[in-house]
C-alpha cells in the first residue's frame, strides 16, 4: 500500500512552528496550477510505513548479492564515519580555497593513488557515475582528434561482449559504433579487429577482464593494433576489482580509463546515487580534462587545463564519495589492494569449480572475478530457464546473479561473488544452486511458480513492461488533498 492510500483527511503531524512572518509567494506565473497531492498522515503512520518499506528492500547488508560486472561488495562502516566528519560533510563548494585545503588534499591524494593503480597521469572526479565517465572519456578522445585537425575519425570499435553503456556512450558523443565478434576463447577476435580499424577509427572501448570474466591474453596486441591505426584505447573500469594492484590499464596500452568508485572502491552502490565515475588519462589527453583540477602551488589550488572540454558536472564531483573511497584505500594500503583482487578471483573460481558438474559454464575456467553459466541445455531438457533459477534463489533470500547478459551467451547467469564473501556463505549459495538444479530435473513446475515466499510472488513481467504505471492516479481516490493548501 502506498503512503497516499494511508492518509486520512485532517490528520497531520506537527514538525515546524507556525510561520510568524509574512508569507511571500512567487509571482502568479511561477506558481503551481493545482495544489500538491500530499498524504495527510501522522508521524507514527509515516514512520511505520517507511520502516515497513525498508524491510522489503534488499541490499549488500542483507545477504549475498552476486550481480556480475557490478561488484556488489560490502561497504565498510569506517568509510561512512570519515565522510560524516564535519570538516568534510559541512563544507560548501563556493568556500574560498584557503578554507578547504584539507578537502583539496583529499582530492589530490585520491588522484595520486588512483593514477598509480591505473597507470594514468591525471584524473578528474567530476563524472557522477560509470556511464557518465564513459561519456567524458570519449569526449577527451574526440577533443584530441579534433585538436589535431583529424576530423575523419568517426568510429568507435566495441566488442560484442561489452557493457551496453559502451555503444550508447559512443553514440551520444556522435560516433558510429562498430561491433566486432569474440573469438572462440572469449577474447577479442584479432583478425576481425584488424579488418575493422582504419583511418576512420577514433578508438576502441574495452574492459579487461571482459564481461565473460576472462582476461584477454592478447591485450597488448589489441591496443597496438588500435594505436597503429591512429586510434586511442579506452578502458572501461567496471571490472577493475579483479586486477587492481596486479596489473594496470596504462601498462596494457590504454590511454583513458573510467573507474566505478561504487564498485571497486567500496562506496555505496545503487539507490539512485550519489555515484562517482572518475576519469583518468595519459598526458596526451590531460590538457582536455574537465575544469577544476587540483594542483599543488603554495598549498592547493584549482586550475583548468588550457584546452578543457569544460564542466561536466557542478563543481568538483561527489566529494564525499571520494572521501569514502580514499578511506578504503588507506585501510587496505599497498599490500591490501592486490590482496582484495586475489580473493575476488579466488571466490569466483571456487564457486565455478563447485558448480561446473551441474551447470554448464559458457567458457571453462579459470575465470577472473566472475563467471558465466549457460542454462540453455537445462531449459531444453527441463523447461526451466535462467529466469526460473533466478526466481528460485529469491525464495532462499539470495539475490540472483545478472540474468541474460552478456548477450552472446544463451540463457546466461553471470555471477560475481566479490572478495568480501566468506567460504561459509559461498558454500551455502552453491548448495542452494545445486538443489535448484536438481529441482529443475525432478519438479520443474515448482520453479515455474517461484518465488512463493517473497512479499510479492511471480509477476507478469511482460505485462509490467508493456503497461507501465509510472505515477499514482488520484482521480478516483477519496483521500486526495485537492482542497488542502500547503
What is shown here, in short?
Helix content is 38%, strand content 10%. The protein is of the alpha/beta class and 486 residues long. The protein folds into three domains: 3-55, no CATH class; 77-330, Type I PLP-dependent aspartate aminotransferase-like (Major domain) (Aspartate Aminotransferase, domain 2, 3-Layer(aba) Sandwich); 340-466, Aspartate Aminotransferase, domain 1 (Alpha-Beta Complex).
Which CATH-level-2 architecture of the largest domain? 3-Layer(aba) Sandwich
Find the CATH topology of the largest domain. Answer: Aspartate Aminotransferase, domain 2
Shape: globular
Q: Please, how many helices?
A: 17
Number of strands: 13
What's the CATH class label of the largest domain? Alpha Beta
Strands of the widest sheet, in order across it, are 1-7-6-5-4-2-3
Helix content: 25-40%
Number of domains: 3
How far apart lie the N and C ends? Answer: 24 Å
* Mean pLDDT value: 93
Order of helices and strands: HHHHEHEHEHEHEHEHEHEEHEEHHEEHHH
Structural class: alpha/beta
* Name of the CATH superfamily of the largest domain: Type I PLP-dependent aspartate aminotransferase-like (Major domain)
* Parts with pLDDT < 50 across at least 5 consecutive residues: 478-486
Radius of gyration: 25 Å
